[in-house]
Amino acid sequence: YRMHEEGARLVRSLPGISHATAMLQDRRGDLWLGTENQGLFRLGSRGVEHLPENRQVRSGRIASLFEDAEGSIWVGGNGGLYRLRETLFSNRTTADGLSGDYVRAVMEDDRQRLWVGSAAGLDRIERDGRIVPVPLRNSVGRAPSVLSLAQSRDGAGWAGTFGDGIYRIDRDGRSRHYGRAEGLAAGNVRVMSADRDGNGIWAGTQRGLVRITEDGVHVPTAKGMPGGLVTALLASDDGLWVGTIEGIRVLRGNTVQRLDVDSLGGGRSIFGFTPVGDAMWITSDRGLYRYRDGQLARVGLEQGMPVDTVFEMVPDRLGNVWISSNRGVLRTTLAALDDVADGRSARIEVERYNEIDGMHNAQANGSTGPSATLRSDGTYWVATAGGLSMVDPARLQHFRERLPPPVVVESVRLDGVPLHWHAQGVTKVPGGQRVTVGYVGLSYLMSDRIRYRTRLEGLDRDWIERGNQRSVEFVGLPPGDYTLHVSAMHPGGRWSESEAAWKFTVEPLLWQRRSVQAAAGILLLLALVALYRYLIHRYKTSNIRLASQ
Question: Where does the record place the Two component regulator three Y domain (predicted)?
Fold first, then answer.
């Protein structure tokens, strides 16, 4: 109910919610309801939402709700104190209905349905969000482990498996199996790509390539085609691109071209191909390669990539590029990649996302495919060892608009020994010692990713960015008055206007004191006068001795 002058007015009926014990309206206008023993609910534009059981607060009465300055919701109840925070990524796991959490492939079909292949079988996420298992069975009656997915031009879905061949699922849900009896090599089918010239597919096996058409399974005979494990595959207008653990082959008609990536950074294992304009981007065990106009360029560890092995590169509609790896999902821009590949920039700025950002498991899977995809609604989906993770790139700006964290000076050490210091006033620091100042941004949101910058007034003219380094050290500061300014920001956000400032004075050493320097000057002057008088005396004595001879 909402209270008005004329009385209470019913806003929404809540069938099934028997006893609300706490209520909060957040900054977005959503209403949070704590209950006696049914957990936490949210009422907003999406209707009534209830936290899943595996993420719900422990059973018992919710007594209080509070929203902090960063938008986190704090929940106090019989089960303890909880904090709910909004994350960039969301997930689909077995708790949501997937057959398995170890997801290897994800693909959207022409009906905007999402196909998900995992170690426990094949699922389909319908447009309304429902997860429907696709019934496939191997020779022993079990669901096959699905490694790769594709959709052919006739709308049929294809699933490559771990040791159980390939399944074709037509639009009516009927499936057909291709195995050794049909001429398919034994082993794993890690990658597939729709045939651009018909209603079949190309498939990469442990013994090279095959082409499956309405007529059956065919093995290409072009000289130079790889005969071992195929780890990446793409049928494009520029030919059939084939990635293996020994580099790249491109099939054009009956001609095979070999691209030598080993000589540029030592790349060998190829995991994916992404055409962007007139360039082909290639993911590998040595970072990213770009092939354009017959030339290869590389963006790897030396150019700022945080990891060596990357699996799938997916551009979105906002200029971002999402890159999966077994150590999280990376994000940069296509313009930044081109700048490094063209030599206009030496290093690239990359953001890395993991469990802190909401991923259930930051280990993205690769060497199967497609292991990540961009849906028609603009969302990015990636296969991980802990389910399927999703991010809406359009929400990035919302996360960047968060208030920057306030920052405080946390500690001061002199030659490693803690110093009793004052936030207000001026702290005296003996000269000749190593000064180490620790500081911290006050935030519950991704605190280990907060970036810092410092400026030592009295020495520095400009700010010096420190990354996520939480201390700064000064050695050999000359005597004088200083003020250390510290500012912080969340990744991609803005710098905090409220700075931490610590004022201190470096006291001079004994020989640096003015009184000592004045006394030393007087002594030096007296010594020079004495030396002068001594030399004059010797000169006169010498002249007298010479005159007497």
Answer: 444-506
Token pair 């994000």 is found at: 331
CA atoms of 89 and 381, how far apart (whole Å): 10
- Angle 468-472-476 (CA atoms, 0-180°, nearest 5)? 160
DSSP 327: T
Q: What is the pLDDT of residues 302-329, one digit of tens each?
A: 999 999 999 999 999 999 999 999 999 9
Longest dimension (CA), the chain: 135
The stretches of 155-269 forming alpha helices (DSSP H) are none
- In this structure, which long-range contacts are made by residues 300-308, counting pairs with CB atoms below 8 Å and at least 24 apart in sequence? 300/265, 303/340, 303/346, 303/347, 303/348, 304/340, 304/347, 304/348, 304/349, 304/350, 305/330, 305/348, 305/350, 306/330, 306/350, 306/352
Query: Residue 533: which residues within 8 A CB-CB, separation 6 or more?
Result: none
Phi, psi for 531 (deg, rounded to 5): -65, -40
Radius of gyration of the chain (CA): 34
**What global pTM score does this model have?**
0.82
Give the C-alpha separation, 64 to 23, whole Å.
8
Residue with token string 């700006």: 397
* Whether 235 contacts 194, CB under 8 Å: yes
Strand runs (DSSP E) across 224-367, as ranges?
A: 230-236, 239-244, 247-252, 255-259, 270-276, 279-284, 287-292, 295-299, 313-315, 320-325, 328-333, 351-353
Where residue 306 falls (left for φ over 0; alpha for ψ -120 to 50; beta otherwise) is alpha
